[in-house]
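In the design runs reported in the main text, the only information available to the sequence generator was the tokenized backbone. The following block is the verbatim input for one such run; it is reproduced so that readers can re-run the procedure and compare outputs position by position.
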């Protein structure tokens, strides 16, 4: 009887383990992981070095040309990943660049974006990663504007559920307080996210088709609430069930364009946020392949990560992979999840004067060859840093940098002026030949700018099309006129020649007639 009872107990325990929802792994377990902290850290260092080499930045990433990426998808995720990995860098330089970017963009009516709330969220997380306060960027409150009161201007979910997901992640990153009478509270943001969940447990960009990335991000955003909220816990467990089924046999994950690095990284972040031991949990191991195995398989020999297996290294793939590695590295070290900054530390790397002067020399040389506003952020940071240092020819170097700074500011003014002129002619599809001189002049000005600055010109492609259209119309008219003139001349020539021939024949006949008359 005792043997039978023990046997039944084992069956019950086994059944409970098999059927239990995918929730937190025990933090106290002493598990033997397939991938060590050292291996993850080494892979992350190789990825960072890949980007440093791309920008020729030596030991420091956040300097020189890289700073022009501040406030963009290309740059901000590096700031977040490096901080959460504990890597040293010049975070103050990147923070200054972020402040410049935000204050400049806030001059426009749409501020950071007229459509995407996630611009506020990503930049806020980057500001926090650099030791800054997103609630006060020269008086600008990114948290209120982009999270709690975004709905006063544009619905938080205007770009889809993505806006709500990242709003919640950002709000919880440092447990920011909700302002009084705000348009969106945590509670209603959570409700919006859960209400968008599909019947199979997934979440979707378009509200219809399951999407692995969005599902993973939803799990990440809701993870802090699973313990105390049964509704959230049920939603997350359903989402994790979906992800378990969606995992490929090689351990990776796919999205609409097939299996890729970024989807795999997002699921890794989600699982780590839930405390799932992805290296040992059999539910996320397929044919012996773990999600870590698959993510690392995207890393190329140059250290960068590719979007699709065996492809070329890309910045977006590399930084998303870095975030995934940072998330797992923190899990292995029993640290806070990736986006929980309550344990924030900014490992500021001291920048020696030689490095600063090298960057200054590089920018001065580049600006002499190509005038562009791309150097403005880096120049602002350099001038600020160099003013606090003592070195030979300090005044001369700072003055030269100030000249570059002035040049960049003047270029920006020219771009702003050009944009106003272009806007006054909108819509450009309706321009006529009477406006050709104006269009040609604007296009010539636009073409004189660097490729970086052309991207700042409103409707540059439309301006180019209008220029080509009018040029084609003018050429058509010229060709038509020339053809008409030639045709007229040809006709005159033909008629004249025919008349001449007729006259010649007439004269010949008259000569013959006269000849016969003389013979008579």
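Verbatim output:
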């Amino acid at each position: 009887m005792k043997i039978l009872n023990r046997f039944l107990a084992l069956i019950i325990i086994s059944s409970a383990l098999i059927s239990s929802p995918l929730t937190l792994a025990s933090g106290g377990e002493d598990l033997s992981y397939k991938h060590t902290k050292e291996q993850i850290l080494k892979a992350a260092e190789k990825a960072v070095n890949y980007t440093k080499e791309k920008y020729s930045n030596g030991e420091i990433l956040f300097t020189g040309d890289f700073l022009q990426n501040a406030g963009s998808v290309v740059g901000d995720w590096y700031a977040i990943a490096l901080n959460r990995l504990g890597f040293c860098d010049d975070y103050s330089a990147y923070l200054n660049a972020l402040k410049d970017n935000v204050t400049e963009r806030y001059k426009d009516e749409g501020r950071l974006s007229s459509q995407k709330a996630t611009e506020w969220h990503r930049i806020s997380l980057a500001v926090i990663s650099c030791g800054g306060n997103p609630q006060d960027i020269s008086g600008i409150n990114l948290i209120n504007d982009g999270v709690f009161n975004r709905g006063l201007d544009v619905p938080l979910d205007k770009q889809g559920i993505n806006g709500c997901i990242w709003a919640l992640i950002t709000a919880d990153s440092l447990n920011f307080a909700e302002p009084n009478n705000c348009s969106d509270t945590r509670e209603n943001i959570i409700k919006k996210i859960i209400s968008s969940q599909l019947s199979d447990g997934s979440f979707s960009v378009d509200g219809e088709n399951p999407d692995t990335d969005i599902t993973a991000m939803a799990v990440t955003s809701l993870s802090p609430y699973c313990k105390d909220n049964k509704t959230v816990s049920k939603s997350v467990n359903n989402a994790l069930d979906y992800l378990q089924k969606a995992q490929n046999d090689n351990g990776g994950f796919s999205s609409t364009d097939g299996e890729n690095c970024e989807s795999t990284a997002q699921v890794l972040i989600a699982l780590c946020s839930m405390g799932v031991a992805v290296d040992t949990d059999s539910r996320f191991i397929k044919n012996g392949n773990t999600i870590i195995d698959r993510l690392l398989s995207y890393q190329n020999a140059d250290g960068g990560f590719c979007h699709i297996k065996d492809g070329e290294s890309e910045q977006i793939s590399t930084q998303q992979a870095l975030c995934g590695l940072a998330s797992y590295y923190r899990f292995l070290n029993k640290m806070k999840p990736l986006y929980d900054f309550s344990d924030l530390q900014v490992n500021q790397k001291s920048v020696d004067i030689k490095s600063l002067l090298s960057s200054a020399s590089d920018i001065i040389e580049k600006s002499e060859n190509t005038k562009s506003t791309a150097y403005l952020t880096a120049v602002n940071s350099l001038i600020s840093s160099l003013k606090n240092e003592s070195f030979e020819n300090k005044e001369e170097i700072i003055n030269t940098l100030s000249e570059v700074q002035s040049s960049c500011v003047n270029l920006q003014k020219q771009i702003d002026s050009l944009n106003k002129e272009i806007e006054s002619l909108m819509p450009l599809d309706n321009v006529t030949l009477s406006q050709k001189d104006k269009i040609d002049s604007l296009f010539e000005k636009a073409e004189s700018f660097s490729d970086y600055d052309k991207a700042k010109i409103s409707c540059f492609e439309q301006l180019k099309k209008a220029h080509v259209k009018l040029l084609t119309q003018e050429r058509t008219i010229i060709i038509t006129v020339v053809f008409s003139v030639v045709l007229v001349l040809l006709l005159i020539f033909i008629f004249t020649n025919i008349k001449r021939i007729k006259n010649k024949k007439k004269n010949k006949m008259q000569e013959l007639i006269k000849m016969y008359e003389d013979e008579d």
